[in-house]
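Anyone up for a design puzzle?
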């Protein structure tokens, strides 16, 4: 891969991350995925005292229906408990199949469990930070005082694994940029500024015809 194309990929990778510093919250809210490192990172945040509860939302998605034996939420909950989060602190939502459902179904489970969280710390994959934040702000049905988003501190070169290969990461990074760009017009997310150099990086990558 030409170095300039890799630089463009890094531009998109950096754009997806909002750089929020975690702050004390009422709830750490994990949006399920195929990457259990997200749960490990959320457990570290819990152990550091950032919130007394961890809510995990996720059923079976496109990337996990053939990979996980349990729902994303249940799989992540096992990781959380292995990492020292007590079961009593974990709230599960096991039906959601996309980010919008993570938000709306998570809200319903929160109410069913008798909670009314106002300060949220969202945890997602690095290239999904921006979309998770924009979806929450647009679609969370109730009132809240603050929402921040964070992700495992991994660079583009560090992120791929045997189960999540580089090409899959690139495809997801591009697809999530398209969602950030296109979903506000469909009512799924809030509008976000996309700098010209980020759009140019995306265009240059797509011109390669590799993804």
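Challenge accepted. My sequence:
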């Amino acid at each position: 891969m030409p170095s300039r194309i890799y630089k463009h990929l890094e531009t998109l990778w950096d754009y997806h991350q909002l750089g929020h510093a975690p702050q004390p919250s009422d709830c750490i809210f994990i949006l399920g995925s195929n990457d259990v490192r997200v749960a490990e990172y959320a457990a570290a945040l819990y152990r550091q005292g950032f919130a007394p509860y961890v809510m995990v939302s996720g059923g079976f998605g496109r990337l996990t229906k053939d990979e996980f034996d349990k729902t994303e939420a249940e799989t992540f909950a096992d990781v959380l408990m292995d990492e020292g989060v007590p079961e009593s602190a974990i709230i599960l939502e096991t039906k959601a199949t996309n980010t919008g459902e993570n938000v709306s179904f998570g809200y319903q489970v929160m109410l069913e469990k008798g909670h009314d969280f106002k300060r949220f710390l969202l945890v997602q994959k690095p290239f999904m930070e921006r979309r998770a934040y924009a979806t929450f702000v647009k679609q969370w049905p109730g009132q809240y005082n603050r929402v921040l988003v964070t992700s495992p501190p991994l660079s583009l070169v560090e992120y791929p694994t045997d189960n999540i290969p580089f090409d899959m990461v690139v495809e997801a990074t591009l697809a999530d940029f398209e969602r950030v760009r296109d979903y506000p017009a469909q009512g799924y997310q809030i509008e976000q500024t996309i700098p010209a150099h980020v759009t140019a990086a995306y265009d240059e990558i797509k011109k390669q015809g590799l993804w």
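A detail worth pointing out: DSSP finds seven helices and five strands in the chain.
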